[in-house]
Design goal:
CATH architecture of one domain: Orthogonal Bundle
Protein name: Cytochrome c family protein
Helix content: 25-40%
Distance between the termini: 101 Å
Number of strands: 0
GO molecular function: electron transfer activity; heme binding; metal ion binding
InterPro entries: Cyt_c-like_dom (IPR009056), Cyt_c-like_dom_sf (IPR036909), Cyt_c_1A/1B (IPR002327)
Strand content: under 5%
Order of helices and strands: HHHHHH
CATH class of one domain: Mainly Alpha
Shape: elongated
Keywords: Electron transport, Heme, Iron, Metal-binding, Transport
Radius of gyration: 34 Å
Structural class: mainly alpha
CATH topology of one domain: Cytochrome Bc1 Complex, Chain D, domain 2
């Protein structure tokens, strides 16, 4: 069934196939790698000269206290609507979260009748404006293990306005 002539044809077909792949790879290298491997002096990219030292300079905006100094309590009241689903501003009216009446400069975890998770007391002692800002920016990141599921206020102006509003209603 397999004689010498058949085996020669099969071996020739396999060698021919490998030769086609080898030549295809060689042609692709020439086409797609201009300037490399001695295929000419063709530059494949432009070099743009710069006087940059390589250091990345991050521009910082104003500090929180600078923004807080010019905060608008009226705008904070509008932003506070996001918080009103869980927090009340009336003294003693706890909801899903503790009431926020007089929260600015109040001791952390000090509302009577509210069961805190304990994560807040581990990271702060008092709710001063900067501590409130850090917590409101990313509650889960600031106090890992907190029960507060709010994602946070990313804009520094919104945080400053809300804290100014909270300071105006019980400070």
């Amino acid at each position: 069934m397999f004689d010498t002539m058949t085996m020669t044809k099969v071996l020739g077909g396999v060698c021919g196939t490998f030769l086609v792949f080898l030549l295809g790879g060689w042609a692709a290298d020439i086409v797609y790698s201009a300037g490399e491997g001695g295929h000419g002096d063709v530059a494949t990219a432009y070099v743009i000269a710069s006087e940059d030292s390589g250091e990345v300079v991050v521009e910082e905006g104003p500090s929180f206290m600078e923004v807080y100094a010019t905060a608008d309590a009226g705008a904070g009241e509008r932003v506070f609507r996001k918080c009103a689903a869980c927090h009340a501003v009336e003294d003693g009216a706890n909801g899903t979260g503790p009431h926020l009446y007089g929260v600015v400069d109040r001791a952390v975890g000090s509302v009577d009748g509210y069961a805190y998770s304990g994560a807040l007391v581990a990271v702060a002692q008092q709710w001063d404006p900067e501590t409130l800002s850090g917590f409101l920016e990313n509650p889960k990141g600031y106090a890992p293990g907190t029960a507060m599921s709010f994602s946070g206020l990313s804009k520094i102006q919104d945080r400053a306005d809300v804290i100014a509003y909270l300071n105006s209603i019980g400070g």
